[in-house]
Amino acid sequence: RSTLFPYTTLFRSEQAIAAGAISAMISLLAAAAPAVREQAALCLGALSVEAKEKEAARSQGGLRLLVTLLEREAAPEAGPEGDAVLTAVLACLASLTADSPGKMEAVAHEAYKGLLPLLDRAMQLELEGRMSHATCTQTVHLTKCIANVAEHPNGRKKLQPALRHLRPLAQSAEPLVAKHAESAVAVVTWKP
Question: Has this prediction a pTM greater than 0.70?
Answer without folding.
Answer: yes
